[in-house]
C-alpha cells in the first residue's frame, strides 16, 4: 500500500469550440460553480468522473490525494490568455507550496485552446513537468474528444482516455490512470508511451462507440492487449470544433 505517499490533484478541463464567437474568460469558470480549490474538490470524489476515479484509486492503493485546484466550464470559445495564465499559475504555485509529492494526477479534457496556445493541454503538461522535474510520475486522464499531441505525451508518464461515447467510463479510466501512476511510483512498472496519428478525422456525428465506425476501431485497438507488455491502449476521437493543427484521431499505448 502507498502509505504516506502524496499525489497532487489538479486540472483545467475545457472543450474549446474555436468557431464560437464568445471567448471563455476567467469569470466563466467562476460562474460555472466549478472553479474549485482544496477541499471544495472533494465533492467530486463520489461522482462518476475522472476525479472520482482518482479518489477510488487512492482508497484502494492507500495514497493520499491532495486536491489543489480544478476548473471547468461549458464548451464556449477560445480561452483568453488572462484566464489561462491565472489558472495555470495558481496550479503551479499550489504545487510548489504543497510539495513534496510522489506523483501528480491531472484531469484535463485534451481539447482546450487558448489565445496564445493552440495546444493548451500540452502547455499545461510542459509547465507542470518543469516544476516537478523528470523523476516525479505524472499522469493525465482525458475526454475521448481530446486532440492528443506529442507534447502531451512527451511531458507525462501515463495518458488515459475515456473509451466510450456517450462518456460512461470517466471514473474507470481515471482509476486506471491513477493505478498505473501508483505502480510507477512503487517501481512495479517503468512505462513508456507511443502515439500514432493516422491522417483521418471522423465526423463527430459518427463518434458513438456502440456504432460503426468507432465500434470496429475500438475492437481492433483491443487486440493490442495480446502483447503482455501493453499496459493500456486508448483511442481518441478528436474534437473537430477545435479547429487547430493537431485535430484528428489518435491511437496510443502505455507500455
Number of domains: 1
Q: Residue ranges: pLDDT <50 for 5 or more in a row?
A: none
| Shape by Cα distribution | globular
Q: Rg from C-alpha positions?
A: 17 Å
CATH homologous superfamily assignment: Response regulator
How do the strands line up in the largest sheet? Answer: 2-3-1-4-5-6
Main β-sheet: number of strands, strand sense, barrel status?
6 strands, mixed
Structural account:
The longest helix has 18 residues. It contains seven helices and nine strands; from the N terminus they run βαβαβαβαβαβαβαββ. The chain is an alpha/beta fold and 255 residues long. β4, α4 and β5 form a beta-alpha-beta unit. It starts with 5 loop residues before the first strand and ends with a strand. Helices cover 31% and strands 19% of the residues. The chain has a single domain, classed as Response regulator (Rossmann fold, 3-Layer(aba) Sandwich), CATH 3.40.50.2300. The mean pLDDT is 95. The chain has a six-stranded mixed sheet, sandwiched between helices. The protein has a three-stranded antiparallel sheet with strand order 7-9-8.
List keywords for this structure.
31% helix; 3-stranded antiparallel beta sheet; 6-stranded mixed beta sheet; 255 residues; 19% strand; alpha/beta; Rossmann fold
Summarize the structure in short.
With 255 residues, this protein is an alpha/beta fold. It has helices at residues 26-31, 50-61, 81-98, 120-132, 150-154, 170-185, 214-222; strands at residues 6-13, 35-37, 64-72, 103-107, 138-142, 158-161, 193-196, 232-236, 250-254.
Amino acid at each position: 500500500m502507498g502509505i504516506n505517499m502524496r499525489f497532487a490533484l489538479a486540472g483545467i478541463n475545457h472543450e474549446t469550440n474555436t468557431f464560437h464567437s464568445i471567448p471563455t474568460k476567467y469569470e466563466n469558470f467562476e460562474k460555472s460553480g466549478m472553479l474549485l480549490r482544496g477541499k471544495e474538490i472533494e465533492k467530486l470524489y463520489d461522482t462518476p468522473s475522472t476525479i472520482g476515479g482518482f479518489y477510488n484509486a487512492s482508497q484502494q492503493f492507500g495514497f493520499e490525494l491532495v486536491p489543489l485546484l480544478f476548473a471547468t466550464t461549458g464548451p464556449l470559445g477560445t480561452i483568453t490568455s488572462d484566464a489561462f495564465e491565472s489558472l495555470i499559475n495558481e496550479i503551479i504555485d499550489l504545487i510548489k507550496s504543497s510539495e513534496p509529492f510522489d506523483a501528480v494526477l491531472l484531469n484535463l479534457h485534451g481539447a482546450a485552446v487558448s489565445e496564445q496556445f493552440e495546444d493548451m493541454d500540452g502547455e499545461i503538461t510542459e509547465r507542470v513537468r518543469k516544476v516537478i522535474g523528470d523523476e516525479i510520475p505524472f499522469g493525465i486522464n482525458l475526454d475521448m474528444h481530446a486532440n492528443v499531441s506529442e507534447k502531451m505525451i512527451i511531458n507525462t508518464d501515463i495518458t488515459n482516455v475515456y473509451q466510450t461515447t456517450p462518456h460512461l467510463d470517466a471514473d474507470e479510466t481515471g482509476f486506471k490512470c491513477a493505478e498505473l501512476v501508483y505502480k510507477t511510483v512503487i517501481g512495479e512498472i517503468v512505462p513508456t508511451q507511443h502515439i500514432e496519428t493516422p491522417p483521418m478525422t471522423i465526423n463527430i456525428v459518427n463518434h458513438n462507440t456502440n456504432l460503426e465506425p468507432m465500434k470496429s476501431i475500438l475492437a481492433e485497438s483491443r487486440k493490442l492487449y495480446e502483447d503482455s507488455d501493453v499496459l493500456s491502449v486508448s483511442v481518441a476521437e478528436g474534437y473537430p470544433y477545435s479547429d487547430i493543427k493537431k485535430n484528428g484521431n489518435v491511437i496510443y499505448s502505455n507500455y
